[in-house]
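Obj: model holo form, ligand = FE2/S2 (inorganic) cluster.
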Amino acid sequence: MECMCSRRANLTSSSLANTHDSLRRCWHPVARSSEVSDTPFGAVLLGEHLVLFRSDGEVKAFYDRCPHRGAPLTLATPQAGGLRCAYHGWLYSPTGRCIEIPALGPEAPIPSRARLGSLGGVQERLGMIFVCLDDPLPGVELPEVPEDDDPAFLRGELPVVRARAGAGLLADNFLDTAHFPFVHAGTFGAGEERKVGRFDIRREPGRLSFSAGYEHSFANREDPGVAAGERPLIQTRRLTYRYVAPFHLTLRIDYLEAGGSNTVGFFVSPLSDEHYHIFSVLWRNDLGGDPARMDEAVDFEMQVLKEDLRVRNCCQGSW
Ligand code: FES
Ligand SMILES: [Fe+2]
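Output (holo structure tokens):
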């Protein structure tokens, strides 16, 4: 039986569908780098089932369907840098070309159509595997996070979250500060100003991306320098958002008096018309290089994300 919530989700998805055709020509994360090895790994993107594996360390991605009789290649065995299908044993090279059909014997020619369905592109970046199903659209690109290469920053990954709603609505939520005092009253939002000032928007010509900057005062209760009388309670914080189409978002927070910077990366991957995965990463240079403090920061960020999903998720989350 269809519930009220799913009707609401259907209304939403009719205008912001997670499987719009143009999304096939954009980059989306489908796995953490650490999840992909020589052994086939299954992923879903825009309703398509994919198989990922490494060959000589390089990530390969194909449709998860053997062109012979359609067996899933996620059941295949790694061999010679490629995959041997679990059904009739066809062997595919790392480029997806079939190089052995056991039932025909070693001498028989191999038809050219015996090759795996290839994708528009696969790239590894920021500890994730990004895939584009068809040829990338002009102006779409992979997200960049300079902090990822900066040794001053610790890096922490949140668990991948599966949720139900429009991916575009979640991207909108990430860019919206007006909800902080209401949605995040239980974490960081209680003392946040309700009035939102003007953002400095910078468009990036020729690219489907923009950045937005915002500087404002806030009560820095976590700064030990306040208790020590070295700095005032009311300090300045600069927020720098960057959006890269379709659903890649980062927020860098610079604490101008206390020093230190936090960056949150939010990479939303549409699975089906109603569901998406959220790959989220934190980078911080204010934790004294202490991994235990980073674990605490990741747990806190997870609480913040759950607060967001309470208002953006339909029916229930499934993290
Ligand atoms: S289905 Fe894969 S070899 Fe037959
Ligand atoms: Fe939020």
